[in-house]
Amino acid sequence: MWTRRSERAIAAFREAIKLNPSFAAAHVLLGQMCLYAGRPEEAHQLAERALARARDTKQQAYESYAMRLYGEIAAQRTPLVVEPAAAAYQQAITLAEELGMHPLLAHCHRGLGTLYGATGQREPARTELSTAIEMYRAMDMTFWLPQTEAALAQVKGQ
């Protein structure tokens, strides 16, 4: 649930972007906040800006984060937009692997597995979610384990 504090955080990130419009990280974070606040169109615009800034300034790490954000946005659309979401997650995975960004890589596998599970693609969903679980365990990222394990159990039960 979004509160006044959340709205203040969004406003603060908007101010940060005004101060440094080439800062791709702020665009990505603000895009995620907008997505979680139920503003997918605004999140999409911010993902586009983040991707452009990251590419202009050769910030591949933030390019990867922006591609993950694209995947998350597409995966939450109604109706579900599978191909663009999967492509965005795959691009984020490729960059994250090249850069050794293991936490982001695990999140991308979780997102892709959840997407596949939502579309009834059981085997790819199991593969992606299992990969995410292995990575979370290896990095001791226990916060993400319960929801990822629940998603895997749901896919196995289908």
Q: What does this entry look like structurally?
A:
The protein has 158 residues and is mainly α. It has eight helices and no strands. The protein has helices spanning 4-19, 24-36, 40-56, 60-75, 82-99, 102-118, 122-138, 145-157. The longest helix has 18 residues, at 82-99. It is globular, with a radius of gyration of 16 Å. The mean pLDDT is 92.
Summarize the structure.
By secondary structure, the protein is mainly alpha-helical.
Produce the secondary structure layout.
Layout: H1 4-19, H2 24-36, H3 40-56, H4 60-75, H5 82-99, H6 102-118, H7 122-138, H8 145-157
Helix pairs in contact: 1-2, 2-3, 2-4, 3-4, 4-5, 4-6, 5-6, 6-7, 6-8, 7-8
Fill in the keyword field for this structure.
158 residues, mainly alpha, 8 helices
Number of strands: 0
- Seen as an oligomer or otherwise, the chain set is single chain
User: For the residues shown, what is the average pLDDT?
Assistant: 92
Query: Roughly how many Å is the radius of gyration?
Result: 16 Å
Distance between the ends: 30 Å
